[in-house]
Amino acid sequence: MTVSRRTLLGGSLAAAAVSLTGCSTVTRSDDIAALNKPVALPTYKRFDGPKPDLPRSHPLMPDCFYRFPAKPAKVTDGAPGDGSKITGTTLTSNPIPPTADRNPYWQELNRRLGTPLELNITAATDYPNKFATSVAGDTLGDLFNIDGGFAYLPQFLEARAQDLTEYLSGDAILEYPFLANAPQASWRGCVFSGGIRAVPIQRGVMSTNTLLVRQDLLDKLGVELGSPNVDELQKVAKAVTDGKKNRWGFAVPPTAAVSAMLGLPNGWEVRDGKLVHSRELPEHKEMLAITRQMVKDGVIHPDGVAKNNQKVWFTQGSAVMTQDTYSSIQSFYRRATDDSFSISIPVPRAADGKVGRVLLGSPNNSIAAIRPSSPERTKMLLRVLNWMAAPFGTEEYLFRKFGLPGRHYTLNGTDPVLTKDGGSEVCLGEFPIQYLADGPYPAYFPGHPEAVDTAYNHFKAVLPTAILPPTYGLYSPTQSTKGKILDTRMDAITKDIQLGRADVNSWDDAVADYRKSGADAIRNEYEQALAIQGRK
Amino acid sequence: MSTIQKGIEDGPAMSSRVLKTVVLVVCCAVVVIPFLGVISTSIASQQHVTNSGGFVLWPDALHLDAYKAIFNGGVVQRALLVSVVIAVGGTLISLAGSTMLAYSLSRPGSFGQRPILMIVLFSILFSPGLIPNYLVVKQFGLLDSLFALILPTAISGFNVIVLRSFFMGIPDSVLDSARIDGAGDFRIFWSIVLPLSRAVLAVVGLFYAVGYWNAFFNAMLYISDTAKWPLQLVLRTYVINNTELSSGDLGGAAADQLPPQESIQMAILVVSLVPILIVYPFLQRHFAKGMLTGAVKG
Amino acid sequence: MARTDALNSLQTDRTTPSDRAGATGSGPPGTATDRRFGRRSGSRSGSRSGSRSGGKPLSWWARARRDKVLLLMALPGLVLLLVFHYLPLLGNLIAFQEYLPFVPFGRSAWVGLDNFAVIFNGDQEFLNALKNTLLITLVQVIFVFPAPIALALLLNSLLSERIKRVVQSVLYLPHFLSWVIVIAIFQQILGGSGLINNFLRSHGMGTIDFLGNPDSFIALLTSQVIWKDTGWGTILFLAALTQIDPGLYEAARVDGASRWRQLWHVTVPGIRGLIILLLILRLGDSLTVGFEQIILQQNLVGRPASEVLDTYVYNNGVLAGQWGVSAAVGLVKGLVAVVLVLGANKIAHIFGEAGVYQK
């Protein structure tokens, strides 16, 4: 931290600046260039591990596995830890696991790490509050998952997270082969103020929202969907809707599919040398008009705009189509009560017949950071994170997610199935270290190889034209303070329009207001950020 | 004298009796029917829950899977103990502090009464923020201590004011006769005021106990050691909204581990209600009428 | 005499019209018993000058010494409040800061009144939120506040103690449901695909939009609150009713008062002090109306009808981790509450009631 820094946020910040203990001051929030200063990203080196069952046809293609590889190989030797205690703050969406003293999985985890791991685990919905208080009380520990909504993230990371640039930039990362197994798109989200200050929890394309269809219901009703454009989609929705039978076309407005069909950008996008937001384009208004018409036609579940219960409606068949992530497919098969239950993922098509532009989700679930530490300790902590990122199909992965054979899981074929103890002690296969570091997210739906095929064919069709969020990894101070507020406001107006409470043309006023109250500033900051990164 | 036991009692007219019955039956039905749904959903099968859109009015069969899931793994049992300790210990501490404070504020003209009363009153109107609270608890070394779940919420200004107003209602003559007998302030408080105030003590005690029983937020902030988590916080982790990537999406095998989310949610509700329903009848005894009569007339 | 004292229970100065001659103003009945404990002779609602038995005023120190036991008794509760409530309240100074949790406390930059802009910028959305808040408060004071009183009186008039207990226990239950579940239940019944609309649809009738209709939103909110909290709300009133001296009813009956007259002249005055106390405290809460309840349903009706102060602040400030803004709003709401409570208390005094505290 020898770089001389400017002070924080506007003029009055000298006080804050000097007060930051230890190293130095942090970057002012109006210094867009400094906040977005690029750095040599870690080299991407795909780990030569278990071969996916289907060939990767595109760099973004997730690894597709029909089943868990038989005889998973051990890919590390020795324990990454040095015996000193490691503390951490992380979250879970599952019931909390028993503490280490009563949890054989955790004990084995500590043994394999070669170091006792003490975790502060919080329920996901409470995490922002927990994170903020832990920051204020300086009780985050050595490793911590970062709440992405935290205000002044770059400054926070400058002050409280280890700068990992010298350890990870360029080929330095090859020291940590499983971290090097993360693509640069993921690392982009870990760079703040010209330093690599976090490691990614990768999700790849699996967190992308897509249109999911109950193929079994379509077959039963004798309706063909194929690869629809807007008109065909609307036609099918009308054909399958029958209010008296409690059956509707969509669980929620299918905005992802319609956006892809209309060629809308993924948030901000450079068009004609200038950043524009999807909301500013005429196609967006068209999408609003289309979804509004769908509500009017009664093809969307009556509670679909207002209430989020689409998983239940889709599973029980009161909605034939829904919008959810690729990764959710697994949970639908799990919830299904009908043996014939089967999901298809239609490829959206533009009016001219070309494959629609699918808007991909964020490459990362979140990021995690390390407390500023000595070089030796930093390296040790990186080795631990590296260990936690061992990819799917390895012995390390099998233990990490499923625990010990016999006690925590049994094998169904080669697919591990958690036992009752496994469910509780390994936290349903998602022990919270998965929010400190994790390997690439595979397309693997155990017990449903046909669903893997469906997903694979879909990926093959849409990935060539799909777009990642173009501003991912750029930092706009206005976006970080006002972005969520603006989004909430625009979402509310969107709902008003869809429900027919507001006229489609009221969107224009809303957009004008949106630009005035922040979007223009955000655009400006993103443009500066793109310029400094040489991406424009 | 036995008629005194009833408040208003003059062989009520038939019509008013019918009216009362109807009103109460309707009130109860409005409450009971949704609760029936809560219990039914907690014991219904996955299929039934799914088919009825997440809320079952009458169960198809008795499935205790949701309850089994909650009580699986030993985490819940330990949390139950923690919760009981906090609720009992906390309520005792709260009642002790609040009744003494309220009593000292209920004696007219006592020294410093007005500023102290204002301190109590304003504590209801202003609430401190999340972070300052955390820093104070940390400063006092209470992180990861069960006292962090008791002391910060031990005194509720509202309850103090309610207690005080009841204490002020105790006739001076009662207290004065004790004073003449040479009893000091604390003696009077302990052996006269408290026994005369059983009804309000039961109410305020219940308020505090329910507060402690249902609290999870402070525990979430202050307790890192999950072995010290109270029941509500542990149960909360069972009902977190399933985001797209959670709950066995990957460890797909975990699939069959959890019964329907809705069932679990409702089972948790039932579980957390049971202790309150057990304790309540004991408290209710103290709502008997005419407490003051004997004491004063005697 | 004793009977009237019992009636004094909720520090109301006026009780039954017939029975309380001379009990107004300066001294409650029972002062005659006062001897060396001058304290008792001071009026309930009267001065706290420290002059006890008409002698010369006691010194500051003498009064403190005299009341030392009382002060000691107040101490534990007071210390807890000061340490765990008032000490962190100092943290509200961040209302004037651009607060950053990772900067040591008190060292964040001072920004004057910037954080209050959300409240005082007078924009249309804010005024609308304020209007909705006050409207909802008004409706709830009119419809929600009396509900538990009426129910308590009804329960109190029941002849069978057993039935009364069962009914009470049943009616308490909804209080323990979280808003998420209450709203889920309402949606199961009233939603677009809920019980009622499904019934209508399957019988070929038009459906009714109960939950998404902005015009009936306040009615919806109010009915939810009534459903959830009326039973629980009776608990304090029932406790107060037990404090009423049964002898008063006896006396009223002897005087030939009808049951309605007994209710009006004995029961209601007996709990009036509590009603006023709770009303005053509710008034202090005027600007707070069910944040969680509303934010969960805001999607259904849209923001114009459902935006209240708390949701406005949440949507405009807190979402981005703006700690300073939420502290600023807390301060302003607290100040408004103080003004309202002190004002309401004053009005209570004018009408001869004791309110939360005496003059």
TrEMBL record, chain A:
PROSITE patterns: PROKAR_LIPOPROTEIN, TAT. InterPro entries: TAT_signal. Residues 75-101 are annotated as: Disordered. This is Aldouronate transport system substrate-binding protein.
From TrEMBL, chain B:
This is Carbohydrate ABC transporter membrane protein 2 (CUT1 family). SUPFAM superfamilies: MetI-like. It comes from the Bacteria. It comes from Kribbella pratensis. One of its GO terms (cellular component) is plasma membrane. The lineage of its organism: Bacteria, Bacillati, Actinomycetota, Actinomycetes, Propionibacteriales. It is a multi-pass membrane protein. CDD domains: TM_PBP2. InterPro entries: MetI-like, MetI-like_sf. Belongs to the binding-protein-dependent transport system permease family. Residues 80-279 form the ABC transmembrane type-1 domain. The chain crosses the membrane at residues 21-44, 80-103, 115-135, 147-167, 188-210, 264-283. It holds the Pfam family BPD_transp_1. It is found in: Cell membrane. GO terms for biological process: transmembrane transport.
Automatic annotation (TrEMBL), chain C:
The keyword Transport applies. It is a multi-pass membrane protein. GO terms for biological process: transmembrane transport. Keywords: Cell membrane, Membrane, Transmembrane, Transmembrane helix, Transport. GO terms for cellular component: plasma membrane. The chain crosses the membrane at residues 69-87, 134-155, 176-196, 216-242, 263-281, 323-342. This is Carbohydrate ABC transporter membrane protein 1 (CUT1 family).
